[in-house]
C-alpha cells in the first residue's frame, strides 16, 4: 500500500479545481504516494452575505484549513495565494508557490463594452476595495456595487442584478473554463492585481521534511520571488484591516521589478510607484517600495482610512 497524502481545500468549484490540479501534478511527480482530497468549509464560505471589507480578511478563507493542518487531519492545504494572510500561524510554512497564471483582472460586461466605452455612470460589481478604488480613479462616474460569492455566483448576478459589468481575476475565470466570457483583460496601468493573485500556494507544517520535499517539486522559483516581494510590501503597509492595495512583481533575468499602488476608497487619491533590485532580495524590495509609497503619501492615506474604515482591528 502506498502512503496516502491528504490534501485539504475549500469546497468552491475554483478551490476544488486548484486542489485537483495540485493533486495531479504531485501524482505525476511522486507516483509512490497516493493522494486524497478533503473538502473543508471556511468562515468565508459561511458568511457569503456580509461585505468582505466589513468582516476583514484575516484568514477568512484559510483558518479552518490551517487548523486541520496543525491537528494532522490533512498533510497539505491548497490556497489561492491571494487569500493568504501575510503572517502565517506559528508552525506553518508555504511549501510551494506554484507557477503563476496571468495575474491580472478581467472585465466581463453584459453588452460587450470595454472599460473605456462603458456608458456614463455604469454599474460595476466587485467586493474588492482594491478594484473599486482603481476603477473609480480611472473613471469617477462608475458606480461600484458590492458583489460577493464564488465566481459562478458573481457571473449569475451580472444577469440578474442589472449590472453593466463585473470584475474578476483572470486566473479564476480561466480555471473554471469561463474564459470565453471575458470581455477585456484590464490593463495593468489601470488596475494592479491583488498581492499573490493568480498563484496557487501549498501550506505545510514547519519541519515536515517529507512534505517539504514533495511540495518543493511544484514550487516555481520566480513566482515565489514575485509573490514574496508583494507579500512583504503588503505586510509593511497593512495594519489589521482591508485596504486598497495592489501589487505586481515580475522577474526577468535575475532582476525583480515590483509595482505597487495604494488608493483611497473612492479612488480620488492614488499613490503608485515601483522598486527594483536583485530578485533574490525579494522581501527587501517589498519593504523598500512600502517605504517609498509611504513617503509619497500612502502613509497618510492609510492612517485616515484606518480611522474611518477599520471595524476589526
Ligand atoms: N477573492 C476571491 C478569489 N480568490 C482567488 C480568486 C481567483 C484565483 C486567483 O486570482 O488567484 C478569487 C476570485 C476573484 O478574485 O475573482
Automatic annotation (TrEMBL):
Keyword terms, alphabetized: Porphyrin biosynthesis, Transferase
UniProt similarity note: Belongs to the HMBS family.
EC code: 2.5.1.61
Boundaries of every Porphobilinogen deaminase N-terminal domain copy: 5-212
Single GO MF annotation: hydroxymethylbilane synthase activity
GO cellular component: cytoplasm
Biological process annotations from GO: protoporphyrinogen IX biosynthetic process
Name used for this protein in its record: Porphobilinogen deaminase
Additional record remark: The porphobilinogen subunits are added to the dipyrromethane group.
Origin organism lineage: Bacteria, Bacillati, Bacillota, Clostridia, Eubacteriales
Cross-referenced PANTHER family: PORPHOBILINOGEN DEAMINASE
Amino acid at each position: 500500500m502506498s502512503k496516502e497524502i491528504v490534501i485539504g481545500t475549500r469546497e468552491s468549484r475554483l478551490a476544488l479545481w486548484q486542489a485537483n490540479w495540485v493533486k495531479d501534478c504531485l501524482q505525476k511527480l511522486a507516483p509512490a504516494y497516493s493522494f486524497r482530497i478533503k473538502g473543508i468549509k471556511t468562515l468565508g464560505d459561511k458568511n457569503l452575505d456580509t461585505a468582505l471589507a466589513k468582516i476583514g480578511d484575516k484568514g477568512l478563507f484559510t483558518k479552518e484549513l490551517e487548523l486541520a493542518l496543525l491537528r494532522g487531519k490533512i498533510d497539505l492545504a491548497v490556497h489561492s495565494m491571494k487569500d493568504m494572510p501575510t503572517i502565517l500561524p506559528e508552525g506553518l510554512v508555504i511549501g510551494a508557490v506554484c507557477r503563476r497564471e496571468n495575474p491580472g483582472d478581467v472585465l466581463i460586461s453584459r453588452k460587450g463594452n470595454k472599460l473605456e466605452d462603458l456608458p456614463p455612470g455604469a454599474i460595476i460589481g466587485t467586493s474588492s476595495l482594491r478594484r473599486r478604488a482603481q476603477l473609480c480613479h480611472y473613471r469617477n462616474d462608475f458606480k461600484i456595487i458590492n458583489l460577493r460569492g464564488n465566481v459562478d455566483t458573481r457571473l449569475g448576478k451580472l444577469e440578474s442584478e442589472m449590472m453593466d459589468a463585473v470584475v474578476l481575476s483572470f486566473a479564476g475565470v480561466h480555471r473554471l473554463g469561463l474564459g470565453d466570457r471575458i470581455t477585456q483583460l484590464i490593463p495593468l496601468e489601470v488596475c494592479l492585481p491583488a498581492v499573490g493573485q493568480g498563484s496557487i500556494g501549498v501550506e505545510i507544517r514547519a519541519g515536515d521534511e517529507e512534505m517539504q520535499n514533495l511540495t518543493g517539486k511544484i514550487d516555481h522559483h520566480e513566482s515565489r520571488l514575485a509573490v514574496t516581494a508583494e507579500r512583504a510590501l503588503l505586510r509593511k503597509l497593512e495594519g489589521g484591516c482591508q485596504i486598497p492595495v495592489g501589487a505586481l512583481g515580475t522577474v526577468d533575468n535575475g532582476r525583480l521589478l515590483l509595482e505597487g499602488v495604494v488608493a483611497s476608497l473612492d479612488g480620488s487619491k492614488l499613490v503608485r510607484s515601483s522598486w527594483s533590485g536583485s530578485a533574490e532580495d525579494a522581501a527587501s524590495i517589498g519593504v523598500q517600495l512600502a517605504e517609498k509609497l509611504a513617503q509619497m503619501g500612502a502613509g497618510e492615506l492609510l492612517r485616515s482610512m484606518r480611522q474611518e474604515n477599520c471595524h476589526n482591528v
